[in-house]
TrEMBL record:
MF (Gene Ontology): lyase activity
Keyword Acetylation belongs to the record: no
Source organism (scientific name): Mycolicibacterium vanbaalenii
Protein name: Carbamoyl dehydratase HypE
Residues annotated as domain PurM-like C-terminal: 180-331
Gene3D superfamilies assigned: PurM-like C-terminal domain, PurM-like, N-terminal domain
Domain spans labelled PurM-like N-terminal: 56-168
Organism superkingdom: Bacteria
Family: Belongs to the HypE family.
One biological process term in Gene Ontology: protein maturation
The enzyme's E.C. designation: 4.2.1.-
Amino acid sequence: MPEPPVTVDPADWVCPLPLRSTRRIVLGHGGGGVLSEELINNLFLPAFGTASETSRDSALLDVGASRIALTTDSYVVQPLFFPGGNIGHLAVNGTINDLACSGAQPLALTAGFILEEGLELDVLGIIAATMGRAAVDAGTSIVTGDTKVVGKGGADQLFINTAGVGVVPAGVTIGPDRARPGDVIIVSGPIGEHGVAIMSVREGIDFGTVVTTDSAPLHRLVAAMLAASAADGDPGAVHTLRDPTRGGLLAAVVEIARAAAVGIELDEAAIPVPETVASACSFLGLDPLQVANEGKMVAFVDPDHSEAVLAAMRSLPEGADAAVIGRAVAAHPGMAVARTPFGTTRVVERELGEQLPRIC
C-alpha cells in the first residue's frame, strides 16, 4: 500500500535566521548585524528626529570651547560570571571604550541596575565591587545611578545600563566617516577571546584550556596613539577607531567601509587569531572574525604615520600584539573583501542577526 502524501505547512517551518519581514522583535535585532542597523535606521532615528550617525560609538557635543563625548550602553550577558571577568567588568570597560573610540578620555560614568526578584545580594555585591574597582583602575568614577527591581521572570537576574561622559582633546577628530583610501588598518591584538570565553561557560564546553575574556579599557591606548601621531607631525593621522564588539571584526570594518564610502581589503593571514579561538570556532562552526571582543580596537591610520602609531600601541600592554591587517582602498567603495591564506579573495559581510547571542 502506498504511503499517504505528506502535507507540509510552511507555517510550521523553523528558520535558523530571523525573517526580515517580521512584525515583532527577534533576538537578531540585538546582534549588531544587519537587523540591528535596520531597526535603528528605520524605527528609532525617524521616531527621535535626530541626525546622529548610527555607526558612531558616542555622540560628540560642543560645550563652549570643549568637545564632549557622550555614550550609553546596556549589558545583558549570560552567564554573569565568566573566565577573566563578569558583567560589571564589561559594563565599565565597554562604556570607556565607546568614549575612547571617539578620541575621548573618560570623565565620569553612570550605572543603572534592573534586578530580578530573587537575585542573591552576594552576587550583586561582587558585581558592584568589580565595577567600582574597574572604574578606579581606569582613572574615572561612577558618579550616579538608578536601581529598579522587577518580579520573578521579569529579567534574567541582572541587567546593567551605563552612560559615560568624556572630553575630546582639541584638534582630535575621529569618526567612521573619516577613513580614507590608503589608510593602514591596525588591530590592537588577538581577536575572538571574549565570545569564546562566554560560549565555553554558557554551553559547558571544555576546549582543553581556559579562554579568558579580553575585557579591558582602551582609553590609555588611544591617548598613546594620538600622542605618537602628533609627535610624528600629524595630530590627525588617526582617522577612525572602532571596538569590534557584537559582530566582531567584520561588522566593524563593513560599517566603516559604508560610512566612509571606501573599500577595505583585509589580509586574513595577518589577523591575529589565537589557536584556542580558532579551534573553538572550528568546533562550533563559527567564523572567528565575527566573534565578539571587549578589549580590542581597530584603527584606520594615515600610511605616512602608521609605523609611529603602531610602535606606540605595541609599547603598552593593551596593544603589545597589535598588527597591520589590511588597507582602505578607493576600489569597491562600501565593500570589504578578505584575501584568504589560500590566495583567493572573498567578500565579507555582516551577519543578518548574530553568531553568539548575549555576549555583552
